[in-house]
Amino acid sequence: MDYLISSLIENFGSYSRVRGSINDDWVDRLNHLYTVVLLVIFAVIISTGQYVGDAIQCWCPAEFTDAFVDYTKSYCWIANTYYIPMTDVIPVEIRKREDKQITYYQWVPLILLFQAFMFKFPNILWTSTHELSGLNLDKIVSMAEETQLGSPDDREETIKNIAHFLTRWLEAYREYKLNFLVKLRQRSSRMCCFLCSRRQGTFLTGLYVFVKMLYVANVIGQFFLLNAFMATDYTVYGLEVLNSLASNTVWQESPRFPRVTLCDLQIRQLQNLQRYTVQCVLPINLFNEKIFIFLWFWFVFVAACSCINLLSWFYRFIFSQAHIDYVTKYIRWWDSIQTKQDRKLCQKFTKEYLRDDGFLVLRVIAKNSTDLVAGDLLHYLWKAYKEKNEVKNKEPADVGSNVHT
């Protein structure tokens, strides 16, 4: 636990890790890179509008001096304003006015930065913990990617080195005793990826799927977060915009982001409290409206991509035949499966040797380099496994012949 906490702190403080890694897919980057950049840019835009220009302008009575006007603007910005449509009568009761208050516009930059952190957090968790599997996946993927730029001899040597390292990793973390409890644990880990272990070859798989579930939970949770933040039903905001555009040719101002609001303030004069109601303009809501409209459609797009991506990875890990078909496709490139025995051995190679973690590593390498690199790497892994299996099958025969002699 201490190592995990220190690893999280170290990786969070490292710019290269926070910036992102190369051992994920484009849907992950859609969440932790592109969405984060968009949110940070929007936060900077809103912050500039708030602190560089006039965030609020209020129409004050004629008897107000310049000092009173400045005070009114500052007070109304801090104390919140409330929205009453021009066609409605301003309520006399103070409580009804308070129920109409708009409380979010001062905090928009902070909420956008918090959202950016929430989109980045699953990636921070992944980069901080995946090395606990015993494999430096960043280094492996980086080496595989660099093979596309080197000479043919350097490329082949690098792929051989990667294959050699993966072979040692696959053989180092495995169960050498296959009793009933071990087999039960293996089946349980395949059914529930959270029961993962390096020995069972499901550590990386469980962590990878868990991180993808975090991406999905986060992007869906953003709608509920904004519901609470803006005190409105943000989940249907985009649909309302589409319906408004379909029924009106002119852009309609949204009551969620009103530009003209009201503000109540009290000014103490000796023992008397003088209450004023002034009308204010919020130019910043012009930007807030467009930004949150765009974010609604962007979050829907990211959520759809993340859900489809998660389901596709669930399919790949739950159904072992998907593993076998994927591995067989690459091995056939080299015409290395010629007999029925080779096909059976290929199934054993996929299920018992590569297992889920090895399959994941190959998928990640293929997505971040090329299918050709993944095919060459599988060729060397298959060749080494096949030779080792042949030696293992010959040993009993050799022992039997020596005894007979």
UniProtKB/TrEMBL annotation:
Mode of membrane association: Multi-pass membrane protein
Intracellular or extracellular location(s): Cell membrane
Cellular component, GO annotation: gap junction; plasma membrane
Highest taxon above the source species: Eukaryota
Matching PANTHER family: INNEXIN (PTHR11893), INNEXIN-5 (PTHR11893:SF36)
Similarity comment text for this entry: Belongs to the pannexin family.
Protein name per its UniProtKB record: Innexin
Gene behind this protein: LOC115232521
